[in-house]
Amino acid sequence: MRFITLLLSLTLTGTVLWCGCGKKIDKTTSSPAAQSQEPAPEHVVAMVNGTPLTWAEMEQRAMGFLKDDVETNHLIIPANRMDEAKEHFRRKSINAFVFKTLMLEEATKQKISLSEADRHAGLRALAKTLQLRNWTTNDFFLKGPMDESTMRREFEDGTVIDKLLNLNVRNKLKISDKEVADAVSMLQATNELKCAKMDDIRKQVLDGADFADVARAVSECHSAKKGGDLGEITRGKMLKPFEDAAFALKVGEISPVVHTRFGFHLIKVTSRTPHTAATGSTPEVPETVRVSHILLKHVDINRKRITDAILKSKFNAGVETFFNGLKNKAKIECFLYKDMF
């Protein structure tokens, strides 16, 4: 459900904003409401083809988005940036209004209506989307960024919009075998470059570069901050290619480049504990090696995922083109932020 997904994800784009990252709002384009008394609830802040958005409607959605980001995404907004945060979510609210209004107008023109089968399909799609939040569909209606009745209207409207987009965009998408093959070739080339880079890294280490320093600088494993140290390992605990290479090394020796499903590894054994057989009073102690590694992750080449990714990209581009076509024919006015449209 694209519109419902949009509704849930609109707040996510703001998560980095208050941490000092990403694009900040230009305070010169902020509305007077940020510095003075708020307008009356019925004050019109934007209009799409004569359909108005009031301050109260915008504020309900915007503050709902803000509340959801704080409670669900654990967004922390410093007190001195709260006005900036509100402005950010008000803009998101206006964008959502424009998108929704134009899409619903077009759905009406195309005489799109919902069947019970459409609603059930919408609920199934919504449930799948909500898995990332560990929510049920009931949670969506009760815990969403707006009140329950509004959230239920959002679901109904979102299902209409999704049906519109399926008919006008998704059902018209085509993907050729060549497109998939080209994508696979590109990913294979990426992996070949990663492997070649690891060969260069190995040469640096063999020429005297400190293994731990290189691991901290280039390794894509969480162990990088520890200089690549993975601790002691026993047989049967790691992927076989990695394990075979590690146990074949002498202390201080550097392995050839080892390929596993995680990527390309360079392995160094820093210590070894030999196997000790059991005696009448002591248990058997297995052989262990303490290893460090450098990892360059490779790209997983899965044709289904590649096909899905291409279709998703084409769908998003198609939706943008479809929406822009509607927007170009529409009369859109924003009285609160003159720079928006």
Structural class by secondary-structure content:
alpha+beta
Tell me the CATH topology of the largest domain: Triger factor/SurA peptide-binding fold
Which stretches of 5+ consecutive residues score pLDDT under 50? Answer: 5-30
Instruction: Kindly provide the radius of gyration, computed on alpha-carbon positions and rounded to a whole number of angstroms.
Output: 28 Å
Element-level helix/strand string: HEEHHHHHHHEHEEEHE
Q: Outline, from the CA principal axes?
A: elongated
Compute the separation of the termini in Å: 26 Å
Largest sheet: 4 strands, antiparallel
Description:
This protein is an alpha+beta fold and 341 residues long. It folds into 2 domains: 2-32 and 39-168 and 303-334, Orthogonal Bundle (Triger factor/SurA peptide-binding fold); 177-273 and 287-297, Roll (Chitinase A, domain 3). It is 50% helix and 12% strand. It has helices spanning 2-9, 55-72, 82-109, 116-130, 137-143, 148-168, 177-206, 211-218, 240-248, 303-329; strands at 44-48, 51-54, 229-234, 258-260, 263-273, 288-297, 332-334. The strands form 2 sheets. It has a 4-stranded antiparallel beta sheet, sandwiched between helices. A 3-stranded antiparallel beta sheet has the order 2-1-7. Strand 1 (44-48) and strand 2 (51-54) form a beta hairpin. The radius of gyration is 28 Å and the shape is elongated. Mean pLDDT is 88; it is low at 5-30.
Summarize the structure.
This protein is of the alpha+beta class. It has helices spanning 2-9, 55-72, 82-109, 116-130, 137-143, 148-168, 177-206, 211-218, 240-248, 303-329; strands at 44-48, 51-54, 229-234, 258-260, 263-273, 288-297, 332-334. 50% of the residues lie in helices and 12% in strands.
